[in-house]
Write a structure and sequence with these properties.
This protein is of the alpha/beta class. It contains 30 helices and 16 strands. It is about 50% helix and about 10% strand.
Length: about 700
C-alpha cells in the first residue's frame, strides 16, 4: 500500500515597514499555530511583547542589504538586476541554511523581518527550492504613525541608533518598504491587512487565512489568548487624518496610497507602479546630496523636496485611456524662446513616449492636412483671428480637441492696460493699444479652446477663470541643452584663472529694464565693498538707465544676445546668476523660472526675487538665495555673502544642478507629459462643454 503523501510545508512571510505592526501580527500567528524561529530577538522597551523575528534572519538580511550597497534605513532602490544576478545563487543557499537552522523540520514556518520587504525575491526563491509553500501577509500602518514611532526612539539612548527624526525621510522609507513589498509579492498568494483594523477586529483580518486553509479553527482558550495579545499599548502614535503633519497635498497622497494598497486591482497597481518609479527616480537623482544627513537630523531638505515632488505628481497616478496618438502643434510665435520650451520640448517628450508629432507655424498652408491625422491639436500663443478660427473649425469638424498653450499673462486685458508689462513702456501709443486689443483676442482664443496648458500655478489660476480645464506643465529643459550643459561642467570658470568673480544678468528680450532696476543699486553697493567682482550683461539692457552704476562702467561687460543653444556655454563662464523680478506685479508673478533653469544646469546658482516660480525653483540657502526684501541693501548682502564664501557657493552650484535636473529635466517629464496629453486627447468639443460647470482640473505640477 502506497504511503500517504505528506502535506507540503508552509511558510507565512510577514511583510511590513518597521513599526507597522509586524510584531503583534506575528504574535497572533504564533498563537494560531505557526512556529516562530528558534533564535528570537529578546523583548525590549521598544517592543515589550517581543519582536518574533530571528537574529540570524536579521543578520543575513543586513548582510544582503550591505552587498546591495544599501542598509535598513536607506530608501534607495535595489535593482532587479542585482536581485536576479547569478551571484545571488550563493545567497539563496545561505538563506536555505538559515531557514534550516531556525526551523528544522517544522511544517508551519513564521518568517518575519521588515527587511524582507526589500529582499523578498531571494527568500521566495530559497523557500520554493525547498518545496515550501508561501503565503505573504502585508500589514499596512499609516506612514504618519510610523514616522511618529520612529522619531520617538530618539528619546531613548538605547534605541536612538534605530530612530529616524526627519518625518519626510521616514515617509520615504515607508514608501520604499511598502511599495517594494507590494510589488514583489503581487504574484504570490497574499493577504493585505491594515494595522488599525487588526487591532479593532483581528478575527476578520485573519479570515482570508482560514479560507485558504493556512489557519485552522481554534478553541476558546486559543481565541482568548489571541484577543489578550491586542493591548492598548499597541495604539501608541495613532494617526488622526484631521491632523496632518505635512503640506495638504502630501497628506492627501499618503491617504491615497493607503487606499490603493488596501484595494489591489489593475488601476491601483498602475498608480502604485508609477509612484514607485518616481521614488526610484528621485532617490537616485538626489543621492549625492543626501549623504550627510544622519538618522537623528530632524531637518532633511532633500527628503522634503522628494516627498513634495511625489505629491505634486498626484494627478498622474490615474491611468488614462490608451489610444493611438498624433499631436499637432501650431505655433503663433515660432521665433520665440517660448516656442522652444512650449512646442519643441513638449513635442520631443511626446515623441520619446511613442507619440507622433507634427509642428506647424500658424500661417502654414497644410495645417488642415495634418489635423486630419491628429488625435489632439495644440495652439501656442494664438489670438482669435482668421487663422485661429479656421483651426477651431477644422477641429470641430474632425471632432478632435483643441488645446491652448500660453506662457505669459497676455490674456488679461486689465493687466495689459495697467502698465505691468515692462515691454510696453517705450512703445508708441498705437502699438500699446494694439497690445491691449490683442489681449482680448488671446482671452477669446483661450476661452474657445477645449482645455489649456499653462507654465506656472499663478498663470493656471488666472486661466481657470476663462478655461475650465487647465493643466500645468512647466518649462523644462531638453536633451540637447542638458548635453551641452554637461559638457560645459568640465571647463573652468573665468574666475578660476583671474580671481575676478562675475555676476551675470541675462536679458533675452527688451523687457527687463524694470526688473534690473531692482538690483542695480545693490550691485553698486556690492562693487563698493568688493573690488574683485564684475557684472556681465547679456542681451538687451541699456546700462545708462542706472546712474548708480556709472562709476563702475569699467567693471561691466556687455555681451550681445546669445543664440539659445549657445547660452549654456556662455553662462557656465560666470559665478552667480541674478534674477530680479518686479514685486507686486501680476505679470511677473505668473512668469516661469526659465532665467534660473539654464544657469542651474551649468552649476551657476541664482540670487532671485521671491515670485512663486522662483520660490519653487530655489531652495533658499541650499540651491541659491531668495531676496525677501527688494532693497539695495538686501541684494548687496545676498550677493556679498556668496562672493565671500566660495565653499558655500560651490555647494549651492552642485545642489542647484542636481535639483533642477531632477525636477525640470527632460527625462523626468516624458511620462507625465504623455499622460497629460492622453487625458486631453480623450476630450472632444462636445465632452469638454460638459466640463464648463465642473471644478477646474487638478494641478499637474
Amino acid at each position: 500500500m502506497q504511503a500517504a503523501k505528506s502535506a507540503p510545508r508552509k511558510a507565512l512571510i510577514v511583510l511590513g515597514m518597521h513599526r507597522s505592526g509586524t510584531s503583534v501580527l506575528s504574535a497572533l500567528l504564533v498563537r494560531a499555530g505557526f512556529d516562530a524561529p528558534r533564535d528570537l530577538m529578546p523583548a525590549t522597551l521598544d517592543n515589550p511583547q517581543g519582536y518574533w523575528e530571528s537574529r540570524r534572519i536579521a543578520k543575513i538580511n543586513n548582510r544582503l542589504l550591505a552587498a546591495a550597497h544599501t542598509h535598513w534605513n536607506d530608501d534607495s532602490q535595489i535593482s532587479e538586476q542585482w536581485l536576479t544576478s547569478q551571484e545571488r545563487d550563493s545567497d539563496v543557499r545561505a538563506i536555505q541554511d538559515v531557514v534550516d537552522k531556525e526551523f528544522g523540520p517544522s511544517e508551519r514556518l513564521l518568517i518575519k523581518d521588515p527587511r524582507l520587504c526589500r529582499l523578498l525575491p531571494l527568500w521566495v526563491k530559497a523557500l520554493s527550492a525547498d518545496d515550501i509553500a508561501i503565503q505573504c501577509i502585508l500589514i499596512l500602518r499609516h506612514p504618519n504613525a510610523v514616522a511618529s514611532s520612529l522619531a520617538a526612539r530618539a528619546s531613548n539612548k538605547e534605541f536612538a541608533p534605530a530612530a529616524i527624526c526627519s518625518y519626510s525621510r521616514a515617509i520615504l522609507l515607508w514608501l520604499r518598504y511598502t511599495l517594494d513589498a507590494e510589488m514583489r509579492s503581487r504574484d504570490s498568494e497574499r493577504t493585505i491587512i491594515v494595522y488599525d483594523h487588526l487591532l479593532s477586529d483581528w478575527k476578520s483580518c485573519l479570515e482570508p487565512l482560514f479560507e485558504g486553509h493556512w489557519l485552522e479553527s481554534f478553541n476558546e482558550d486559543t481565541e482568548s489568548e489571541m484577543s489578550n495579545i491586542i493591548q492598548p499599548g499597541y495604539r501608541h502614535h495613532a494617526y488622526n487624518s484631521s491632523q496632518g503633519i505635512h503640506p495638504k497635498e502630501v497628506d492627501q497622497l499618503l491617504d491615497d496610497v493607503m487606499q490603493w494598497l488596501a484595494k489591489p486591482g489593475h488601476d491601483n497597481y498602475h498608480r502604485l507602479d508609477f509612484l514607485r518609479s518616481r521614488l526610484d527616480y528621485f532617490t537616485e537623482h538626489y543621492k549625492d546630496l543626501r549623504v550627510n544627513y544622519d538618522n537623528l537630523c530632524s531637518d532633511d531638505c532633500w527628503s522634503d523636496q522628494i516627498l513634495k515632488e511625489l505629491a505634486r505628481d498626484s494627478i498622474y497616478y490615474h491611468s488614462p485611456k490608451a489610444t493611438k496618438h498624433t499631436a499637432v502643434f501650431i505655433s503663433a510665435s515660432p521665433r520665440s524662446k517660448g516656442h522652444i520650451y512650449r512646442v519643441e520640448n513638449i513635442a520631443l517628450a511626446l515623441r520619446y513616449s511613442g507619440w507622433a508629432t507634427i509642428i506647424h507655424r500658424i500661417d502654414d498652408e497644410d495645417i488642415e492636412t495634418s489635423l486630419a491625422k491628429a488625435s489632439i491639436a495644440v495652439v501656442f500663443r494664438a489670438t482669435a483671428n482668421d487663422q485661429f478660427n479656421a483651426i477651431r473649425s477644422s477641429c470641430d469638424t474632425l471632432e478632435i480637441p483643441l488645446i491652448y498653450d500660453i506662457d505669459d499673462l497676455l490674456f488679461d486685458p486689465e493687466v495689459t492696460s495697467s502698465g505691468q508689462i515692462a515691454y510696453l513702456d517705450n512703445l508708441p501709443e498705437a502699438e500699446r493699444q494694439k497690445w491691449i486689443l490683442d489681449s482680448l483676442k488671446y482671452k477669446d482664443a483661450l476661452k474657445r479652446c477645449d482645455a489649456s496648458i499653462l507654465t506656472t500655478e499663478p498663470l493656471r489660476q488666472r486661466a481657470s477663470l476663462v478655461s475650465k480645464i487647465c493643466y500645468m506643465i512647466p518649462n523644462i529643459s531638453s536633451p540637447r541643452v542638458e548635453q551641452i550643459s554637461s559638457t560645459t561642467l568640465l571647463s573652468p570658470r573665468l574666475s578660476d584663472s583671474d580671481g575676478i568673480q562675475r555676476l551675470v544678468f541675462a536679458s533675452g528680450t527688451e523687457s527687463h529694464h524694470r526688473d534690473f532696476k531692482i538690483v542695480a543699486e545693490g550691485i553698486a553697493l556690492t562693487f563698493q565693498q568688493n573690488p574683485s567682482c564684475s557684472l556681465v550683461v547679456i542681451g538687451h539692457l541699456d546700462i545708462s538707465l542706472y546712474p548708480s552704476l556709472a562709476p563702475f562702467a569699467n567693471r561691466i561687460i556687455r555681451v550681445p544676445v546669445i543664440p539659445f543653444y549657445d547660452l549654456p556655454i556662455e553662462l557656465s563662464k560666470y559665478d552667480i546668476n541674478l534674477c530680479p523680478l518686479e514685486p507686486a506685479n501680476d505679470f511677473c508673478a505668473c512668469k516661469s523660472a526659465v532665467r534660473c533653469l539654464v544657469p542651474s544646469l551649468v552649476n551657476t546658482p541664482s540670487i532671485a526675487s521671491t515670485t512663486p516660480s522662483l520660490r519653487d525653483i530655489i531652495i533658499h540657502g541650499k540651491t541659491g538665495l531668495l531676496v525677501e526684501e527688494d532693497s539695495p541693501e538686501a541684494w548687496a548682502s545676498a550677493i556679498s555673502s556668496l562672493l565671500a564664501d566660495r565653499q558655500k557657493r560651490l555647494a549651492m552650484a552642485k545642489a542647484c544642478c542636481i535639483d533642477v535636473r531632477a525636477r525640470y529635466g527632460h527625462s523626468s517629464w516624458i511620462e507625465r507629459i504623455s499622460m497629460v496629453f492622453q487625458n486631453l486627447s480623450c476630450l472632444s468639443r462636445r465632452s469638454s462643454n460638459a466640463y464648463q460647470s465642473s471644478p477646474t482640473a487638478s494641478i499637474l505640477y
